């Protein structure tokens, strides 16, 4: 059910530019899908006093989790707090990796944060019993280094091309044990001799390992959603718990309780290794909602959400969340969706991070096409002739993809300043937001561009309402506005909104775009990247 937001606003219309005379309208803003902590959760670590810490990359923060109450608070804020993996030294020093910036940080107690190293794609790290620190590059590199804990000497490369040595830990035998993400194996490394040997194989995508107090090795398989116990001597495997895919990391406390993070759930579970029962410590309905599209089937509105770690749908009346797909699940096609549009039978998901545009059958949830090779694509829309228009922020262009598998690419119009939101108009025309220029423009099928509205602050998501108005998320002003495309009149609909999560260091200024959509009856929906929530705006 929807929960009322103490923001049920009555706002007078504010008109920008030289057009006047808009009438005051009254709108009610309610929260349709509740928010959650984190913005995708990754690395886990437990300090000597038993405190559980969790890291977020997109949220660029390191959190302390209250296991009892199921809440989380920021322990190290952005920008230094971005953390993909967390480790504790014998003396209690906490260290973590900021994947997007390539920085490795440490902090002792409540002291100052210190940068120890900078390596592109720095991902996993662990301390040895003698306090020495080791880290790996994964995805944007594939190498193992020793890191100077004082941050003076440059990282010393030990070996490379292991196959994606991800969340690792030193075992009782002083060997480094870790998963090889790209090989489906768990390996051990003698870091002094730079020798690697395989301990166990047959995993789909092993993401992290950890030891309990008895020397048992536990592995999370992100694709299969499994927690597996491995005998480090024989390589024998036994599944301990069947969880959901999109697992990222694990940490084991001094009582041998296992904590597992799940990116798509925005959650952490506690698993009993003896029984395999899992208890949810913290969870979200959504992970990090970006772009949205809305389609009405009769009187029923459905919201299609690019949730970064999942593709989800929301019932516009009840707020019920469904999940056609989640990241890394075995057999699922999905690549960190950040933007979404929906129209007719099509949903289009885009990811500037992976350069992909994915065309999905709205009714079956099946992927029709996955197009690669775009330069930081944001919104995409499908036209009547089957071609796809893509806001390509990296090339400052609106691009048309056509032909077999969308391989024929032509620039419709260039020199766009931050093309983020895109909505299809009539006759092959489209409306788009230029976030960096603060304007909304109309682009005809022949590439002719007309500026519809100027002097906006960071406009992102855009949708065409049934009455012909444009609904825009003016993120820099934290409000939703409507724009009359005939004269450019801008009318405020709702203000003081929880939108505009600051860009993560190493990412794009647009970060995860704020999405808007409009149902057939004129109900407006928007995503809150700050809260991980979906809101509904209804005219009173």
* Straight-line distance between termini: 19 Å
Assembly state here? single chain
Which residues sit in consecutive blocks of at least 5 with pLDDT less than 50? 1-24
| Number of H/I helices | 0
Main β-sheet description = 6 strands, antiparallel
Gyration radius over CA: 24 Å
User: Which class of secondary structure composition applies to the elements?
Assistant: mainly beta
Measured as a percent range, the helix fraction is under 10%
pLDDT averaged over residues: 93
Percentage of residues in strands: over 45%
Quantity of strands, as a count: 50
Overall morphology: elongated
Structural summary, described in words:
The protein has 540 residues and is an all-beta fold. The protein has no helices and 50 strands. The strands form twelve sheets. Strands 1, 2, 3, 48, 49 and 50 form a six-stranded antiparallel beta sheet that branches. It has a four-stranded antiparallel beta sheet with strand order 4-5-6-7, with no helix packed on it. Strand 13 and strand 14 (143-147) form a beta hairpin. It is elongated, with a radius of gyration of 24 Å. The relative contact order is 0.12.
In short:
The chain is mainly beta. It is 0% helix and 49% strand. The protein has no helices and 50 strands.
Break the fold down into its secondary structure elements and pairings.
Blueprint: E1 3-4, E2 10-11, E3 25-33, E4 44-46, E5 52-56, E6 61-66, E7 71-76, E8 85-88, E9 94-98, E10 103-107, E11 114-118, E12 122-127, E13 133-137, E14 143-147, E15 156-160, E16 169-170, E17 176-180, E18 185-190, E19 195-200, E20 206-211, E21 217-221, E22 226-230, E23 237-242, E24 247-252, E25 258-262, E26 267-271, E27 278-282, E28 292-297, E29 300-306, E30 310-315, E31 321-326, E32 339-343, E33 346-351, E34 356-361, E35 367-371, E36 377-382, E37 388-392, E38 397-402, E39 408-413, E40 419-424, E41 430-434, E42 439-443, E43 449-453, E44 459-464, E45 470-474, E46 479-483, E47 490-494, E48 516-518, E49 524-528, E50 533-539
Antiparallel strand pairs: 1-3, 2-3, 3-50, 4-5, 5-6, 6-7, 8-9, 9-10, 10-11, 12-13, 13-14, 14-15, 16-17, 17-18, 18-19, 20-21, 21-22, 22-23, 24-25, 25-26, 26-27, 28-29, 29-30, 30-31, 32-33, 33-34, 34-35, 36-37, 37-38, 38-39, 40-41, 41-42, 42-43, 44-45, 45-46, 46-47, 48-49, 49-50
